[in-house]
Please model this.
Amino acid sequence: MAEPGDLGWDEGLYGEGTGVPGSRTALDDERSPQAAPAEGSGGGHRRGGPRRRAKRGKRRILRGVAITVAVVVLGTAGAGYLYYEHLNSNIRKGERSSADSDVRKSAPNAAGQTPLNVLLIGSDSRNTAANLKLGGSRKSVGAKPLADVQMLLHVSADRKNASVVSIPRDTKVDIPKCTDPKTGDEFPATRDLINATLGRGGPGCTLATWQELTGVYIDHWMMVDFAGVVAMADAIGGAEVCVKHGVYDGPKPNVPGGSGLRLEAGTWPIKGEQALQWLRTRHAFESDFGRSKAQHMYMNSVIRNLKDQNAFTDTGRLMDLAETATKSLQVSEEIGTVKKLFDLGMTLKDVPTSRIAMLTMPRIPDPDNPKAHVLPAPGEADRLWQMLREDTPVDGKAPTSKPKPSAAPKDPAADPAEIGIMVRNGTGVNQDPTPRRAAAVAEVLTGQGFTGARTDTTPEAESRTQVLFPSVDLDGDAHAVATALGIPASAVRKSSEVSGVTLIVGADWRTGDTFPKPEPAGGPPKNTETVMGDDKGACMDIYAPYRI
Model:
């Protein structure tokens, strides 16, 4: 079986022996002095005799064969290179992040590997004829797109387990200040639904919002619209889905719209426009959370199909997928070549389906609009984000690799009584701050001998608890504070925004004297559903009004 590099996937296309300048070929060897027969009178033959003419004839034949081979090899390589460049030219790219962020990449594990995080975005844009034909009305043309589907693909550092986490589109979050990389327009920080981020600086603003909410460093984003979903579903070959009842997701009295999905009860292969209908269905699956679950089932089915068909190693399939994917996807610029997208796709090749977990963010109703909007669930959502940051499998099973031991601080800690600490209350994220939280934690520190702990009333709202220090000579002091309170070393970092050791008590630590630890042994976070990649029996319930 041919390797991907044989058909132009590898950027190092022209190697040794290809017949290009600087390489050796049969033609070079034939023309070299060493290859020519020695002249002389040995054997009694005169110059120009029959034997000499025979050798010349053979050399001419060999020369013709060599030239033909060289032309064929060069022509094939050239075609591969041109096709490779054609695929590269298909790719639409954009800025990775549209906002400043202090979220840093996870520390490597004991083997020096780091996790991979990719944000998958589904745009509801109707700003092309193809997208408008697949859904929406003409009045939506020209409107800013919304990020109606948002999923974070997390692949463990050792590439042996993976998870996909969805955030519902109607989740209210803090959106950072973003700048549209195309127009230069600036959008101030605000509090709004997370699907609005796409219109406030593009996919890079959606990525920045996820980073600020979760504290997870996101390496790349990939975005697809309606037409792209249909094209990709056809190229992949579709997937099997299951419904427990017959379903028609059409308009109802006082509930206009619907995806148009119509299926009889049972398991069915879907592709193309029907796959888009499945992924868009919300009313028949009762809510956005039901829709996310159905999307996870579809994605798991696709992954199983690709693995069963050996698509990860079938060059022909990979080329077909590459042609469609490069036309259908928009990606962040640092993965904007075919080779990089290919390498990215290979990250799931060796992850067993039994270690692929898909779930939706734990959530609670938004007190300001409980029927329509949700908030991240305090505690459980925080636990999920921490598990992703620490590369802890969210399926509750044992980790597949060992974490790297924390490095010792560059400067030893002073005596606790000599360490000055400013404590800020940053718990006011998604709800009112916990009263006197900074004072309570300062008292805990004082009780442990850190008598220099003081309360800082500077307004702050942070999703994650952090210990900041301005210079290397305070590194050890900051780690000593973190250790005393059970705060992980990953939350300690150098920052030019503080003048001394500063503890920001975040929304992930609203109560208690010690920082809460994630509970991987307790399984996936509560208040959500997890769909495992090897669950072939997963089947969607249908909301009663939409059963047929």
Remarks:
- The first strand starts at residue 92 and ends at 94.
- Confidence is low (pLDDT under 50) at residues 1-48.
- The two ends are 48 Å apart (CA to CA).
- The longest helix spans residues 50-90.
